[in-house]
Design brief:
The chain is mainly beta. It has 2 helices and 43 strands. It folds into 4 domains: about 280 residues, Glycosyl hydrolase domain, family 43 (Tachylectin-2, Chain A, 5 Propeller); about 30 residues; about 150 residues, Jelly Rolls; about 80 residues, Immunoglobulin-like, CATH 2.60.40.10. Strand 2 and strand 3 form a beta hairpin.
């Protein structure tokens, strides 16, 4: 069996962002997002924004980076890749000029044949139907919709006029609302008017002098309306599934919704199970703007964007989740334990399979050689990617140690490095534009040694990467046979740019030998059209809870993980639809399902 743990274990490149709104001040972070995943000639490929390359795998568990040629628009967002016959077609986003396409029969070596573009677009998606006809979808805005058009398969020129396919409806669709946990309602027209007038007054601008075509964009700045973006189309059993992302990539509730139609250009209706990709809780939240495809064994997978957004809104990673279609044709995605290790067998698998192992490290005691203020050792075990332990120096004798409380069988450890605010010069030339930046091209290294102990005195090596030449900031170490340990220690660390090492998660997985939690006690109330409040009673021997909900007792496809009992608000409901809820409890020993309740 092979395993992976989100985010995917690849090299994420540093971005030196010179946002003009910040007067050119650099914001430095790692980034990869907006994954397009394809199967081509027996191998899997993921093309993601701002990576300068492509990730390739033979098994969906182990990925390698390969650099792409500079003739491709590697600095443009949301690369879209599709297979058409023997060719792979590539394009990316640019609003400022016509977007060209490129095609090749050899992804690594090329050549890439250029196809002149005829119009600009953002967040593109090419779709090839069973009959060979080609369609194209695009859109990324809080004021404009997702569009679709049929293309000539030879010239890639539009054969039809652009058609509006879907728009945002944040007053009726809860998961489209802005803010953490979909907490912000859109502004009224009167509120927007007042904010726009105040903005113009502050800027000393006469509103009558502003071009009419810019006014929707200016109003959109103050609307709290969701970004509707990231289209992706799949066909299943004769139906067309138009997927899209909302409300914004910087929020924990970034999700992928789906509309269903009988033809590739609609009309479309909101699917009963929308959003189908939604992960607001856990260590690393977010599951929007992605792609859905089948592997060689017929298993469906969804690759999506996951959120950090500390050093920059676009500090992001890529996750992969089991997906599928149920007997009623509903598209779903299993994200119940979506950032825990999961198995990939190479055979047809049950998409609702549980986690490979249980989480052992959450909330456990931690100690360290040193720390900086606000970045104490326990930050590495609180299951929050936005906080981290930071050593006081970059010396190799710094260390971090977890005490699991007792001896467990350990099967996997995920070592998650973070970046504290970096203040270093840009190593290359900033590319101008609305997303002015430089993508670091150097092959950096991240090094460390991982040890285990039964008593905190005698240590054995779990993995020694103190001399590694790889840069894996979310590395996963798997020991399928397991080993006994109470203490796990990380030491001998070296990270890019000579930083003091930062660990957002030293995450340990395995199995305890005790009892699973008792059946959880909770109440659930729908407080309005869009919001659900779940109140969970605290109980002993429980590490956390998973709130499952959906449109029938048998289709609890959505989930939200919490490590804290009490009241939890979920703002992803759709107006006028019935829902059912179940709360499951988990600890180091297993999972206990709760009672299903109707709202």
């Amino acid at each position: 069996m092979k395993y992976f743990c989100n985010p995917l274990n690849v090299s994420y490149r540093y971005q030196f962002n010179a946002d003009p709104r910040r007067h050119g001040q650099l914001q430095i972070c790692r980034e990869a997002a907006d994954p397009s995943m394809i199967l081509f000639q027996g191998r899997y490929y993921i093309f993601a924004s701002m990576t300068l390359g492509v990730w390739v795998s033979d098994d969906l568990a182990h990925w390698e980076n390969h650099r792409l040629p500079d003739t491709l628009p590697l600095y443009d967002y949301a690369p879209d890749v599709r297979v058409l016959g023997d060719w792979v077609y590539f394009c990316a986003s640019n609003r400022d000029h016509n977007c060209d396409r490129y095609r090749t029969k050899d992804i690594f070596n090329g050549p890439y044949e250029k196809i002149e573009g005829s119009f600009p677009y953002w967040d593109p998606n090419l779709f090839v139907d069973d009959d060979g006809r080609v369609y194209f979808y695009w859109g990324c805005s809080n004021v404009t919709p997702i569009y679709g058009v049929e293309l000539d398969p030879k010239t890639m020129e539009p054969k039809t006029e652009p058609k509006t396919l879907l728009e945002g409806h944040p007053f009726e669709i809860g998961y489209e609302r802005f803010g953490e946990n979909n907490s912000l309602l859109p502004a009224s027209e009167e509120e927007i008017d007042a904010k726009v007038k105040a903005f113009h007054k502050m800027q000393g601008v006469d509103e009558s002098s502003i071009p009419a075509e810019l006014m929707p964009l200016i109003r959109g700045m103050f609307s709290n309306r969701p970004y509707i973006e990231g289209a992706w189309m799949d066909k299943h059993c004769g139906k067309y599934y138009l997927q899209y992302a909302a409300p914004g990539t910087q929020y924990n509730c970034y999700a992928d919704g789906v509309y269903v139609g009988e033809s590739p250009l609609g009309p479309f209706r909101l699917a009963e199970n929308s959003p189908y990709s939604y992960k607001p809780g856990g260590f690393l939240p977010g599951a929007g703007h992605g792609s859905t495809m089948q592997d060689e064994q017929g298993n469906w997978w969804h690759a999506a964007t996951m959120r950090i957004s500390v050093n920059h809104d676009f500090e992001r990673r890529v996750g992969l989740f089991p997906a599928g279609f149920d007997a009623d044709g509903e598209l779903f995605c299993n994200q119940r334990y979506g950032d825990w290790p999961m198995s990939v067998s190479g055979f047809r698998q049950e998409p609702w399979r549980g986690p490979a192992w249980m989480l052992l490290s959450a909330g456990k005691a931690a100690s360290a050689s040193s720390h900086t203020p606000g970045h104490e050792p326990e930050k590495a075990s609180e299951e929050n990617v936005q906080t981290w332990w930071q050593a006081a120096s970059a010396e190799r004798d710094e260390w971090l140690c977890l005490d699991l409380g007792k001896v467990f069988t350990v099967n996997a450890v995920q070592v998650n490095f973070a970046d504290d605010k970096l203040d270093i010069p840009c190593p290359g030339e900033i590319r101008p534009g609305s997303q002015a930046r430089y993508i670091d091209e150097a092959d950096r290294v991240t090094q460390w040694k991982l040890e285990g102990s039964l008593d905190g005195e005698s240590w054995f090596v779990i993995e020694d990467k103190s001399g590694a030449q790889t840069d894996l900031s979310h590395d996963l170490i798997v020991r399928e046979e397991g080993f006994a340990a109470r203490y796990v220690r990380l030491s001998d660390m070296a990270v890019p740019f000579g930083q003091s090492p930062c660990i957002s998660g030293l995450r340990v997985f395995g199995r305890g030998k005790g009892e699973a939690p008792a059946v959880p006690c909770y109440s659930a109330q729908r407080v309005n059209d869009l919001d659900l409040i779940v109140d969970i009673e605290a109980q002993e021997n429980t590490l956390g809870y998973n709130v499952l909900f959906g449109n029938s007792p048998e289709k609890l496809y959505h989930s939200c993980m919490s490590f804290t009992p009490g009241k939890l608000r979920i703002g992803a409901l759709v107006k006028g639809r019935a829902y059912y809820v179940r709360v499951d409890a988990f600890n180091e020993n297993g999972i206990t399902e709760g009672e299903v309740k109707s709202l």
